[in-house]
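Lab manual, section 2.4: Encoding a predicted structure.

Procedure: take the sequence of the chain (130 residues), apply the prediction step described in section 2.3, and record the output as structure tokens. A sample record is shown.
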Amino acid sequence: MGKAETQKVHETMLAALSSGDMAAMAGCFAEDAVWHLPGTNPMIAGDHKGRDAVLEFLGTAAEYSQGTFRLEPIAFAYTDDHAFAWQRITAERDGRMLDETEAIVFEVRNGVVTEVWHRPEGDKLDRFFV
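Recorded output:
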């Protein structure tokens, strides 16, 4: 794969996430994909192993924010097999606000995301998902 293909996979995934299209999201991830999210919150933190676990994690996050989840891209960079994202995430639930900047690295192989390293800002995600 080249940079253009990696970018296309990443952009397709972002569009599916923004529209809530879980079928399109499923097509973006390898069956054995892993999403690493540090933290201590049992609702979202940990290694989400397998496409189904990744989609469940993303669905839980979207559902918990009651439709208020917003992703604001700040910068992206691409190599032949990685997408690097710097982005702002906002959400609201029961009067609590999430507003954080985070870095995410996506490994892309054979046209699908195989591994994700998610680096949120401090413990803001842990505190939001209670």
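Check your result against the sample. The CA atoms of residues 49 and 57 lie 10 Å apart.
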